[in-house]
Design a protein that fits this description.
With about 170 residues, the protein is of the alpha+beta class. The protein is built from four helices and five strands.
C-alpha cells in the first residue's frame, strides 16, 4: 500500500508537470500553435490530478488492525448513521467483538452526518444461515455504536447477541 510520503513525491512530480504544461500553453498562445487549446485542457487536467494527489498526502490511507478480528464485507452503508457488515457463520463471540471494533475504526469518516438526535454510527454484524434447503435467513449477531464526531471514541458500546450464536450451524469435524 502506498504511504503518505509516496503521495507527497507524486504530488511534487505532478506539480512540476503541471507547471511545464502551463508554460507550454502560454508559449502556444504567444506563437499561435494549433494545439494551444489542447494544452490548456491538459494543464487543467494536471491541476485536478495534482490537487487529488495532494489531498491523498493529507489523509492517511492506513486501516486499523485489531488482533483477533475476522474478515468482513460491508453490505449496507447509508453514509451517515447506519452500516451492516457480513461475517462468517463460524465466528466466535470474541472474534465478533474484535471484528466490530475493526469495522468501527475502518468505517469512521469525518464526512458522516448525523440525523436529528442521532450522533452515533451503528454498525450491525450479520451472517446468513440456511435452516432448510433453499431458504436463507439473515442472523444479526451483534452491533457497535460509536460517536460520529471524534475518531478516538471512549464511549463505544458493543452488544453481542449471545442467544443468536445458538442458531448458528455447528461445525462438522
Amino acid at each position: 500500500m502506498l504511504s503518505t510520503a509516496d503521495f507527497l513525491q507524486y504530488t511534487q512530480w505532478s506539480g512540476i508537470a503541471t507547471l511545464v504544461f502551463a508554460a507550454l500553453a502560454v508559449l502556444a498562445f504567444i506563437f499561435k500553435w494549433g494545439i494551444r487549446f489542447r494544452l490548456v485542457g491538459t494543464t487543467g487536467f494536471m491541476l485536478v490530478l495534482t490537487g487529488g494527489l495532494f489531498a491523498l498526502c493529507l489523509v492517511p490511507l492506513s486501516r486499523t488492525v485489531i488482533p483477533g478480528a475476522e474478515k468482513f464485507t460491508l453490505v449496507y452503508d447509508n453514509g451517515s448513521t447506519q452500516a451492516v457488515i457480513a461475517i462468517s457463520p463460524e465466528i466466535s463471540p470474541s472474534q465478533l467483538e474484535a471484528t466490530l471494533r475493526q469495522a468501527a475504526s475502518n468505517l469512521y469518516s469525518y464526512g458522516r452526518l448525523g440525523r436529528k438526535g442521532e450522533n452515533y454510527l451503528t454498525i450491525r454484524a450479520r451472517t446468513i444461515v440456511h435452516p432448510e434447503p433453499g431458504v436463507s435467513v439473515p442472523l444479526y449477531l451483534g452491533q457497535i455504536k460509536r460517536a460520529l464526531a471524534s475518531r478516538e471514541d471512549g464511549e463505544i458500546a458493543i452488544e453481542i447477541y449471545t442467544d443468536k450464536f445458538a442458531q448458528l450451524p455447528k461445525p462438522t469435524a
